[in-house]
User: Which sequence fits this backbone?
């Protein structure tokens, strides 16, 4: 494990060790709480004692120990006693690899960085209108056609005019083979990061429709399906078959404990009624459940009446609705955790157009609702305007370091401390820039 990685963990640890969670004084706690990733660490008479219930806890403790030794010239600070554990089981980061493609080397860097921040879920938005990014053997055109597009010119794009297909003189794109994905899942797992796949259904499907045009809504030509009309015709029996075959392959690639995200967002209800959407997504949630698998959807599906899944809440005004469903929630409200939005008002600051500033201060000001059904929080990196690895990391950090504080520990830690830690990490380990 590399040096800077463990150094940073101590910085987080130091902060969380000081944190006060209702009813628990972490730095004085004796008992190791039965929480995944929890550990205790005690140094006495030059001996170190670590306790953990699971491999994640041992992983975090081990990193901390290595760091302590380095920070103290090979010694451990006498008398140190820490009980450390996460607030949420889901500490997520989402990367949209459809609008722009990021190869496995970039994703591995992202996982390394996440592990340093104790983030543990990497949600990959694998499909959307501008590209399908995972090999599906039963539908090869998804990637032979749908993973490629005409290269876009420089500058911001409205995403109204991209062209899908492999036959342009200048093409852009890429996809992950199943073998690459399996290797990556294992790599991430060693760092206690679960890779969570999303196949966005039934909307955001332009790449799918160019590959398989007969899946489109019958009232539109293929050309007319761009811009929000790129919706699968859920009444077509082959579309149902298609979705199930794709899920079969996902279930074979991703380990059993990994939920599968079905999307379900932003489908025009005048084109596909709420009931049509509900029936389709519910069938897929149930299909996964019948195979012992958990589904996730965006909050629209919950609003449409789908049940049995975990819900990712991105529209802040839907929180009450989502709470009332009683479904487990992962919160990624666009008000605080859409990291494709600009992070400052500086002229030239990159970010999605027609949005607002989400500064590190704003992320820090977030107050997670104290509801037992909240599994965790997540930040989302939509990549319409993120066309390089450098830009991806620029948009992600340091905001994700601030979000990680909410996810793991205490929001009371001053923002400046978090930012200073991030700078120290970067100096020692130039992951991001
Ligand atoms: C979303 O931003 N459409 C989930």
Assistant:
């Amino acid at each position: 494990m590399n040096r800077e990685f463990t150094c940073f963990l101590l910085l987080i640890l130091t902060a969380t060790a000081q944190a006060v969670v209702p009813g628990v004084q972490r730095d004085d706690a004796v008992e190791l709480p039965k929480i995944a990733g929890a550990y205790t660490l005690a140094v006495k008479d030059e001996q170190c004692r670590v306790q953990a219930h699971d491999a994640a806890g041992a992983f975090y403790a081990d990193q901390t120990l290595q760091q302590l030794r380095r920070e103290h010239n090979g010694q451990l600070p006498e008398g140190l006693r820490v009980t450390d554990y996460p607030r949420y089981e889901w500490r997520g980061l989402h990367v949209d690899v459809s609008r722009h493609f990021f190869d496995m080397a970039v994703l591995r860097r992202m996982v390394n960085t996440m592990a340093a921040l104790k983030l543990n879920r990497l949600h990959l938005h694998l499909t959307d209108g501008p590209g399908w990014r995972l090999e599906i053997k039963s539908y090869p055109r998804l990637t032979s056609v749908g993973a490629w597009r005409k290269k876009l010119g420089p500058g911001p794009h409205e995403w109204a005019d991209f062209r899908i297909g492999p036959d342009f003189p200048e093409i852009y794109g890429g996809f992950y083979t199943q073998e690459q994905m399996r290797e990556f899942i294992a790599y991430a797992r060693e760092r206690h990061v679960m890779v969570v796949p999303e196949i966005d259904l039934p909307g955001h499907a332009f790449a799918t429709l160019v590959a398989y045009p007969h899946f489109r809504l019958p009232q539109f030509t293929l050309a007319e399906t761009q811009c929000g009309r790129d919706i699968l015709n859920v009444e077509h029996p082959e579309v149902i078959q298609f979705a199930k075959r794709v899920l079969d392959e996902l279930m074979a690639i991703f380990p059993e404990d990994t939920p599968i995200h079905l999307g379900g967002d932003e489908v025009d209800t005048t084109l596909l009624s709420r009931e049509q959407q509900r029936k389709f997504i519910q069938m897929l949630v149930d299909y996964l459940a019948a195979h012992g698998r958990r589904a996730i959807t965006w909050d629209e599906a919950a609003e449409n009446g789908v049940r049995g899944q975990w819900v990712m809440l991105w529209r802040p005004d839907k929180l009450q609705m989502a709470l009332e469903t009683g479904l487990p929630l992962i919160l990624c409200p666009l008000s605080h955790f859409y990291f494709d939005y600009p992070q400052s008002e500086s002229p030239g600051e990159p970010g999605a157009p027609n949005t607002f500033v989400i500064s590190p201060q704003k992320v820090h000001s977030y107050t997670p609702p104290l509801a037992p059904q909240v599994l965790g929080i997540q930040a989302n990196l939509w990549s319409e305007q993120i066309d390089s690895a450098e830009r991806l990391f620029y948009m992600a950090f340091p905001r994700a370091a601030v979000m990680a504080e909410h996810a793991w520990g205490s929001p009371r830690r001053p923002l400046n401390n978090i930012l200073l830690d991030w700078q120290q990490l970067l100096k020692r380990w130039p992951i991001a820039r």
